[in-house]
């Protein structure tokens, strides 16, 4: 105790500075946020009443700053007063904190790379699979189109020579019948007028010859008997079982139920078919839009709805 009394108490220095600044212990306690009893213990050197030397040293430093003294000098005086030869090592500030090394960084990078590669492979596989499905669908559509084209091509195949010759001869005969109808009609209407005129001329000539003393010779009546020869042809065209008129080029085939070919030819625009057949008939028309009208036994026939190929098939008379 005698040695401590010979050493200077840092509390006395702090008290003198407080008094010089005219500050009370209460103000010091409020600024340091400690109790008034702790301030009295520091000034009176009763450091045993404080929590410990470390806290006491800290209070002294704060007290010294508050009253304008050197905190380090007073801290050294406190250590000497308390008999502390080795002071605690000052805590050095941390300028930079080194990041800890990640032990699993490489493994995580490899795992992430594998996941990305798996995703890319999945996308590529999905794209290839979808492309193959689209190609298959397009192939199926192409096959359907080819089937439709095959159907049209089958209907438009070139006929064998025998059938073609038969069709041409039949067509020529029917064209003769159809084209002869109009002149025959004109001839039938002009026939009576022409005959009457010729008879009047013959009577006049006979009278003139009689007056001159000549003989009258009878006029041959060959013209009157030759006129009705065209009537059977017109009757065949008008009373035909089947009549078809065309506005464009169209291939037509007409068969009997037993398979016999009644007509098979390529019809041109403006032509018509007049066919007389007792039984049922199967018709195959290559282009439905090329048909102007169809009449069967005097009644108009409506073609079925047009297909994608334009070919119309129907049976008449059954």
Structure description:
- By secondary structure, the protein is an alpha+beta fold.
- Among the domains are: 81 residues, 434 Repressor (Amino-terminal Domain) (Orthogonal Bundle); 123 residues, Sandwich (Lipoxygenase-1), CATH 2.60.60.
- It is 55% helix and 13% strand.
- It contains ten helices and eight strands.
- The chain has a four-stranded antiparallel sheet with strand order 4-1-6-7.
- The chain starts with a helix and ends with a strand.
- The N terminus is likely disordered.
- It comes from Halopseudomonas sabulinigri.
- Keywords: Membrane, Transmembrane, Transmembrane helix.
- It holds the Pfam family RodZ_C.
Summarize the structure.
This protein is of the alpha+beta class and 318 residues long. 55% of the residues lie in helices and 13% in strands. Among the domains are: 2-82, 434 Repressor (Amino-terminal Domain) (Orthogonal Bundle), CATH 1.10.260.40; 154-191 and 234-318, Lipoxygenase-1 (Sandwich).
Helix content: 55-70%
| CATH class membership of the domain at 154-191 and 234-318 | Mainly Beta
CATH architecture of the domain at 154-191 and 234-318: Sandwich
Structural class label: alpha+beta
Assign the CATH topology of the domain at 154-191 and 234-318: Lipoxygenase-1
Number of helices: 10
* Cα-based radius of gyration, to the nearest Å: 66 Å
Largest sheet: 4 strands, antiparallel
Protein name: Cytoskeleton protein RodZ
Domain HTH cro/C1-type: 14-47
GO molecular function: DNA binding
Biased composition (Low complexity): 206-232
């Amino acid at each position: 105790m005698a040695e401590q009394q010979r050493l200077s108490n840092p509390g006395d220095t702090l008290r003198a500075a407080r008094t010089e600044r005219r500050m009370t212990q209460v103000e010091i306690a409020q600024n340091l946020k400690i109790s008034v009893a702790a301030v009295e213990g520091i000034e009176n050197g009763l450091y045993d009443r404080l929590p410990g030397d470390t806290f006491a040293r800290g209070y002294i430093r704060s007290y010294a700053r508050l009253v304008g003294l050197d905190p380090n000098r007073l801290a050294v005086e406190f250590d000497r007063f308390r008999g502390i030869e080795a002071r605690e090592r000052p805590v050095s500030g941390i300028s930079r904190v080194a990041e800890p090394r990640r032990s699993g960084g490489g493994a995580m990078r490899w795992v992430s790379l594998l996941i990305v590669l798996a995703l890319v492979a999945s996308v590529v596989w999905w794209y290839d699979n979808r492309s193959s499905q689209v190609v298959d669908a397009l192939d199926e559509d192409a096959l359907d189109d080819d089937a439709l084209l095959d159907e049209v091509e089958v209907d438009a195949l070139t006929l064998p020579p025998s059938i073609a010759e038969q069709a041409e001869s039949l067509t020529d005969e029917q064209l003769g019948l159809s084209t002869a109808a109009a002149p025959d009609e004109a001839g039938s209407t002009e026939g009576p007028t022409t005959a009457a005129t010729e008879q009047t001329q013959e009577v006049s000539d006979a009278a003139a010859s009689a007056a001159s003393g000549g003989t009258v010779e009878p006029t041959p009546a060959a013209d009157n008997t030759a006129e009705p020869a065209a009537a059977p042809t017109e009757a065949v065209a008008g009373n035909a079982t089947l009549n078809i008129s065309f506005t464009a080029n169209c291939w037509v085939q007409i068969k009997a139920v037993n398979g016999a070919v009644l007509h098979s030819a390529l019809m041109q625009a403006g032509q018509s078919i007049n066919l007389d057949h007792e039984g049922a008939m199967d018709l195959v028309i290559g282009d439905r839009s090329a048909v102007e009208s169809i009449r069967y036994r005097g009644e108009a026939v409506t073609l079925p709805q047009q297909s994608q190929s334009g070919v119309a098939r129907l049976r008449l008379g059954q």
